[in-house]
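Apologies for my clumsy wording, but can you show me some protein sequence, whichever is easiest, together with the matching structure tokens, please?
=====
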Amino acid sequence: MKIKQSVLLLVSAYLSLNMAYANDSASNDITSVDDSVVTELEPIVVYSRGLKESRLDAPFMIDVIDYRQIERRGFKNVMESLASLPSINIHNGGNASTSSIWVRGVGSLTNTSMDDNSVDVVVDGVSNGKTGLARPLLDVERVEVAKGPQGTLFGSKSEAGNVIIKTVDPHSEFESHIGTRLGNHKLRGINGVLNVPLSDEWSFRIAAQAEVQDDYIKDSDTGRPLNNKKNNAVQAKLRWNDNERNDAILSVYYDERKNDIPIILSDPFNYSTKTNGLSHNAYRKNAGISLKFKHEFDFATLESTTAYHRHRAHVYRPLRPLDMLGVLYDSMGIPAPMRPLLNNYYAQGSNNRQNINERLGQFSQEFKLVSELDSGLAWVAGVYLEKRKRDFNYDAIRGIYLWDRGPTDRGPVVGADPFNAVIDREFNFETKAIFGELTLPVTEALKIIAGARYSHESLKYTGTWTANPNIPKSAYTEKHKISDSFLSGRLGINYALTPEWRIYALQSFGNKFGGFADYGTNIAFAKDNHPYKAAKIVSSEIGTKFLSEDGSLGFDLALFNNKVKDDHVTTVLYPSYLTGTGNADTRTRGVETGVFWQMNEQWRFKADMMYLNTKVTRVPTESSQITTKGNQLPQAAKFSGSLGISYNSKPFHAGFLGESQFLGDVNIRYVGSRYAQPDNIQKLPSYVLLDASMGIQSKHHDLVVWTKNLTNRKYHAFGIMPGYAGLPAMGRTVGLNYSYKF
């Protein structure tokens, strides 16, 4: 079913069900603001250790973004929400395989493949890897970010940390709302949620959205937006709960993003690109189904999660962006007389194209036993199985051009290179793991945390290179199989100085499986590509946490030191642009602190700060053209921080709206200067972003006016090698969100 049809059906359901419940609504003359308006304190419960616990009892720092922050700040997807945190850095490469994420500076030195992941995104208990970065925040209860290696419970995709997304489950009360979203760049969208209790044991919930917006990058040839971006999604859940010991939730979801293509521009603040009519289009689609079952024993809860996750991605754009031709010519030493002829060559779609297609299918099964919180000894134990297949197709077939300088002097051939070809890669992964973690109370104040995970991972890889039919070269196929067994874990203590104040120390060690680069080019020369080694991390963290008895004041402070051996690098040889794989060792250390204060029922204050010191500590010969010993890590600002103030007025009567509240929210984000890439050539300047929102909320109406980057700060979202090219970040955006609750 198409997304637009889903939205129309959802609206129809609102109308019919609202009539069915009209009598109940009319019989309850409610004049006070409902629970969603009442001021609630910062969530003090976290789930990053696989069980429900106080944030004081988690022996590492955790950021929580709840649904109120998502709504007020207008976060549309996981990537946007994470970008608001000082400890997180993201490179949005347009699709999952070319995007990167770092926590406290830890992550791959350069992008290698979609499988090379240091931060897992886990949605409703299902690993999404980097494909989860594009997931929309549709009907989301909370986003939870755990810092430091989380491989004990979540495996080798969580070398640097993990992100847990929890969507809202069906419940036993009728709930529905429909909303719209409008903004500049012709942003317009519709969204809605419907929750229906079907019986005492069964309930159903569906949420959907359809959104479209013009690209902020213009086509300089036409003056029109480069693309029309679309963000559509639907999610449905069916729940059975016997109100005793059993609970089961069947979930299905589908989401898509169309034409979200970061364009690399040579001018950092020129919000237009020359296309000459060349195609620039893309999509990313996620879909899946999962069944989560819980059974409560007297001593623990059994949780079973069975899931299938599918990802599809397509990118069709120029192989050589026209704005980047000068950078290309300079790096390759192209003489000036030849450049106009090459400009004409690359201006034709048949000579300047890359068609990238990715298909991923992942089946996973996890069984987990979780102890009861009041049992004294808290523990988690389980087994995990995952089979993942990914196909990567890179089609860069283009025309062949012979530069003729005269009747008898024939110049070089353009397009007769080994990359004028199709490369097909197939990756078949299998993961088996057993894991467990316990929190042992030694005394009333002291607890010991110990956990371990033993994993066996294997990969069968096949790559095939097929040249342009006009190039007389035979195809080449390579096949490899690699496997490894890992032991991950952590050991720590958590000591209660008082009921409100903890100090903790944690030593963690984790792993990230090796593999093959998506863009390795040895295959184009009839040679096998080499795998990059598995990365290993050792992380130390000591810290303190405070949370007042009423939850109104909280404070976190952590000192950390991370050492990564054999982090992953895509090596590039200039000017040939031949790519391979390599490894390098890194070190990150720093201080992170956060504080929140609910000053009274109206005012709330939150601040976070990060100091980061990073260094490349060892560089093998094969990686020496990418980085050097002593260089700083990419996208790792020495200083970064955020400050937020929110306001809820006391309830007042607002005419036909009834009892209402004014809402206000101001957030400032500072990111210090940092190097764009591990070569430490391009240094991106610091910037400050100011976001704000204000609105009014009542029993039936929510209206919020918001702005992002209020001062219209111009800065690079990221940079690339070689040279000083990059993507200008989006300027000021303004919008309005309105929803009506039935």
In short: The two ends are 26 Å apart (CA to CA). Helices lie at 3-20, 22-26, 67-73, 78-82, 151-154, 325-332, 339-346.
